[in-house]
UniProtKB/TrEMBL annotation:
PANTHER family reported for this sequence: DNA-BINDING PROTEIN SMUBP-2 (PTHR43788:SF8), DNA2/NAM7 HELICASE FAMILY MEMBER (PTHR43788)
Protein name: DNA helicase
Domain of life: Archaea
EC number of this enzyme: 3.6.4.12
DNA2/NAM7 helicase-like C-terminal domain boundaries: 714-900
Class of the enzyme per the UniProt entry, highest EC level: hydrolase
Positions of region (Disordered): 39-63
UniProt GO MF annotations: 4 iron, 4 sulfur cluster binding; 5'-3' DNA helicase activity; ATP binding; DNA binding; hydrolase activity; metal ion binding; nuclease activity
Domain DNA2/NAM7 helicase helicase: 540-635, 646-709
Gene3D superfamilies: 3.90.320.10, P-loop containing nucleotide triphosphate hydrolases
Single biological process term from Gene Ontology: DNA replication
Organism name: Halopiger xanaduensis (strain DSM 18323 / JCM 14033 / SH-6)
Amino acid sequence: MHVRGTVAGEVEVRSVSTSYGETDLAEVPLQLTAVDAAAAPDGGPESEPLAAAVSESDLDPDLDHEPTTVTLWNKWTKSAELLEPGMELLVTNAEQDEYQGETQYKTTGDSYVVVEPSFLVNVTAIRNWVECPRLYYLNKLSGVPLNYPVVKGTIVHEVFGDLLRGRDLEESIDARVDEHGLELGLLGESPDSVAEDVRENAGAIEGWLEQGRLTEDDSWRSEQLLISETFGIRGRADAIRRGAPVELKTGKNLKKEPRFKDKVQAACYALLLEEHGGDVDTGTLLYTKNSALDRNEETGDLTPAKDFSMGDGLLKFVVRLRNEIAAMEMSGDVPTGYEGSAKCEYCFEQDTCMVVSGRLDQESKAGQIGQALPDEELEYFERFYRAIEEERREVHREYAKLWEQDAQERADDDRALINLEFVEKRPLEGGRWELRARREGGATSKLREGDLVLASDGHPVRGQSELARIERLDDEIVLTADEPVEVTRLDVYPSELTTDRLLAALHDALLKGDERRKDVLFGRAEPEFEDIEETFIGNNARQNEAVTKAVGAKDCALIHGPPGTGKTYTIARAIRAMVERGERVLLSAFTNRAVDNALEALLEQLEGVIDEDRIVRVGSESGVRDDMEPYRLERAGDPEDRLAELQNAQVVAATTATCGSRIMKEQSFDAALVDEAAQLTEPGTCAAINLAERFVLVGDHEQLPPVVRAENDLSESLFERLVDLHPEAGVMLDRQYRMNQRIQAFASREFYDGKLRPAEPAVAARTLNDLEGVARADLPENLRDPVSFVDVEGDGSRYTDGEEAARIAELIEAYEAAGLERSEIGVIAPFRAQVSEISAHVPDDVAVDTVDRFQGSSQEVIIVSFTATGSLEGPIFEDYRRINVALTRPKRALVLVGDSNALATDPVYGRMLEWARQ
Ligand SMILES: Nc1ncnc2c1ncn2[C@@H]1O[C@H](COP(=O)(O)OP(=O)(O)OP(=O)(O)O)[C@@H](O)[C@H]1O
C-alpha cells in the first residue's frame, strides 16, 4: 500500500541491531492525508499513481487526527534526514504494522520514499546535482550562456529527432543549421563548418540507427515529455527504443561503461517510463564522438552506443538524489558543494564558483575569492532569491494541478479545453505533425494562439500526451507537434522559464552590474541629469519635461503616466531624440502588445530620421503583431546576414522576458525605455535595464501591479520603489487625451490627487454624438449621461450574477439601437465566472473580459459588471488599482451595473456611487 502525509514533527535517525546486523532506521511522525490499500502488493513504481487511486473514503477517519509513525529503513534514512515538519512525504509499497494497538507503516524492499512529491524536479537538474550540487545552483543563478558547444549540442539533438522521424540526414542538417543562423552569427561560426561538425556527430547516430531499424522499425519514438506524479520528476527523453530510454551525448567516452552522471539521467527516464506502464531494465547512452569504425586495442571502446542494465539500486539512488533537490528547494537552502562528492580541482567552473561564493559571501567547497557585496546588497539578493523561489514553488503547484484536478475542474478554471472532437493528424515536412480537433462553441480557457500546451488523448500526465503549439484557435483547433496524438484535450503547460530568467536578471544586476547603477538603485546616490534646452513637445508641458528628463538622464528617469496621458507618444518622442543624438536604444515592455503599440508610435516619429532596416523587433512569430512582422528579426538564415541585421539596428524592441534570452543578453544599449514598468517585478525590470547604460521607466503604479503568483517582494515594481526613493527623477503626465470630463472626474480625485485634466476642451466635451450615425437622444434616458448607474439587486452568489448579465445584454441592445457598433462596446467583470456568464448572454463580437485584459486599451463605451452582493468583503476588484483601470477605459460613455446597497458598504465604492448618480 502507498501512504502519503505531512511530516508532523522532528525526525530522528538511529541505528538498531537486527538479525541482519546493524541497520539504520528513521521514525517519521506523519499526519496522513492518503492511504491507498489497493496498491498492488508487489507493485513497483508501475502501480497506479497515488493521487489517482485515493479518494476521501479510502481514508480511515481515525488516521487524520493523530500522527502515524512511518518507519523508513536503511538507505531511505538518507531522505529522512532531509525532512522538516510540514514537508510532504510519500512512501510506496509500505507494509502495515500493529504496534501496541496502534497502526504503523514501514518501508519494504519494494518501497520508494519521495519527499515533496508534488515538486517536479527536472531530470537535467538531477544530472547536474550528481555532478555537484553547487554547480546545480550556479547554473540556476546565471542560466545557460550563449556558447558554441551548447548550440551545437542542440542542433545534434534536433537532427537526431529528425532522423528518428525518418528525415533525410543532409536535409535535416541543412535545415537545422539554417534555423540557428542568428545564434551562429553571434558566435562567429560559418554554416559550413557547423554542418561539418554536426555531420561528424550525426554520422555515428545514423550508422547506429540503421542497425536498430533493421529489426525494430516501429518501436522508436523521438523526444517525449514525461511527467511522474509519483516520483515528482519531469523530463524529455531524447528517444525511447523498445520502451527503454536512449540518451544522446555530444562527446567522447572511451570507457566501456557510460559515465555515472549519464547513467543517472537514463535511470530518471526509466522511472518516468515505468510510471507510464513500461518495465525498463536497460538504458542506452549514445556518445556521438565515438566511432565504431576505427576501434582498436589502444583507442579504447569506441562504440557509440553503450548499454547498461538498470538495477533497482540505481533507481532508488536516483529518487534519493531527487529528494535532496526537492528538500533544498522547499526549505530555500543554498547548496555548498559539500553535499556531494565532487572534486573542485577537476571542475571547469571552479573560478566562477569561488567568485560567486566570495561576492555573495556563501559557504562553498571551492572556497571564496574577492570582496563580498555590501550588506544591503546581500540582504536584497537573499530577499529576492527567496521571493523568486517562492514564485517557482507556486509554478510547481500549477504543475501538480495537472493531476490533482479532474478534467471538469480544470475546464472550469480555464486551465484546459476538454471533450474536444479529434478530427485528423497530417504529417508535415521534416517529420512533424499537424493535429486538428474541434471544440464546442463558447468553451473558454487561458490558452492563446502561439502557446505551448499539453495535447493529450484524455489525460495530460497519464494518457498519451505531447507538447504542442497552438497554430489556430477557433472552433477548429490546429496544433503542431513532434508526434501524432489523437487530441481530445488541451492543458495549460505552466512555464518555469520566466522564473529562471528573473533569477538570472537578479544575479546579473548584482554581480555584473555597474557600481554607479547600484548606488542609484540602493539610494546611495541621487540620479543626475544633463541640462537640455531643446523643446521636444510644444503643446504639453509635462510631456516635454518627461522627454527632457529621459534624454538628459545620466542614470534614470521615471515617467508616471495616468490613463490616456500620452505615455506611448512621449516614449516615441524621447526615443526619436535619443536616436537623433546617435544613441542605440532598447524599447521594452511587459507585454508584446505594449511593445508593438510603442513601436507603432515610434515608427511614425522615426519616419525620415533613420532607415527602416535600423529598427528591429525581436520576438516570436506568434507574439509579434502582424503589421510589425516586417520588422521582426528572423533567426533563420545566413549567420553573417542575421548578425548584421541585429548589430546594425539602432532601435531594438522586445518584451522584458525576451531581454533575458541568450541572444538579447549579448546586446548592449545606451538607453533602455521600459513601458508598463509598474507591472514588472524588480528583477523583471532588471532583465531590460541590465542591457543599457541608462534607463527610463514609464508606467502608472495606480494601475495594475506586477502579475505574480506568490505574495512577496515581487509584487512591488522597481518603478514604484524608485518613484518613492528618487521623486526628483520623476515626472507625472497630467493631461489626458481619452475621457470625457465627467468620466475622468472620479479617477482623478480618487487616484491622482485631482491632478488629472482633459488635455483639450474637445476631449472634455466628448460624447457619443460625435460618432457617425449615433444619437444620444435615441438612448433611454438613464443612459444619456456619459456616466450612468444601473441598479441590479445582487443574487447572493459570490462569483456570478445572471440578472446583471441579462441587464447588460439589454444595455448593449439599447446602444446598438442608438447606432453604436458592437465592436465599440466593452464589458468588464471582476471574475472569470462572470465573464463567462455575460459572454453567454451577449453577441460574440462584444469584447467581454476581466480588467487585466483591458489594461492599456480603450473603448467608446465601457460597461462594468460589479457582481456585488450582500455586505462586500473587501473590494470586489481585489485591489482599487483594478477599479481605476476599469473606470478609465471608456472615451464617451461608462455604465456601472451593480447592487447599490452592497456597493454602498465600501467607502470607495460608496463615493463612486455618488459620482455615478450625480
Ligand atoms: N502632446 C500631444 N498632442 C496631441 N495629441 C497627443 C499628445 N500626446 C498624446 N496624444 C494623443 O493622445 C492619445 C493617447 O496617447 P497615447 O496612446 O500615447 O496614451 P497612453 O498614455 O499611452 O495611453 P494608455 O493609458 O492607454 O497607455 C493618442 O491618440 C495620441 O496621439
